[in-house]
Specification:
Strand order of the largest sheet: 2-6-5-4
InterPro entries: DUF3990 (IPR025051)
Helix content: 25-40%
Structural class: alpha+beta
Order of helices and strands: EEHEEHEHHEHE
Protein name: DUF3990 domain-containing protein
Number of domains: 1
Pfam families: DUF3990
Organism: Blautia caecimuris
Length: 155
């Protein structure tokens, strides 16, 4: 399987890094199957970025969690991760809570909308995909193929 990672840098050797904010599936190295999504990640600040390309070879010995679609379990998992609760998975894969969906999640966490309202709001969102790598063994499933420069359009 080919995966993409959008970044401001060429990332030949992926790393798991702690970030300022917790992400959907907690701290990890994030990729996607969708080239356009990686391009959005790479150019999100309106500057030159890179789409890094990897061959992913799954390892059945790793502890993986896969969400085929947005479900109650997916929502609860993202809420926990965004609140700083870690997990023991090597790899987590599933839909991405983009900026709009993240706002809905935050409203749900804050009690501003119900669980039912959350599902009503997200049902028309376009498909997204992310796969996050949370351990050295998980990163070993990725083989760097190359990168391509892409350019943002913000001034």
């Amino acid at each position: 399987m080919i995966l993409y990672h959008g970044s401001a840098d060429i990332v030949e050797y992926p790393e798991v890094r702690k970030a300022k904010y917790n992400k959907d599936f907690y701290y990890g190295f994030y990729c996607t199957q969708y080239l356009k999504q990686a391009e959005r990640w790479a150019t999100r600040y309106g500057k030159k970025g890179y789409i890094n390309k990897y061959e992913y070879i799954s390892n059945p010995d790793l502890n993986c969690l896969v969400f085929e679609k947005m479900t109650e379990e997916w929502l609860d998992f993202i809420v926990a991760c965004r609140q700083g609760i870690s997990h023991q998975y090597d790899i987590v894969e599933g839909p991405m809570a983009d900026d709009t969906i993240y706002n809905y999640i935050q409203n749900f966490i804050d009690g501003k909308i119900s669980r039912e309202a959350f599902w009503e709001l997200v049902k028309f969102k376009y498909p997204t995909h992310q796969i996050s790598f949370h351990s050295i063994s998980a990163l070993d499933t990725l083989k760097f193929i190359g990168s391509e420069a892409v350019y943002g359009n913000k001034k």
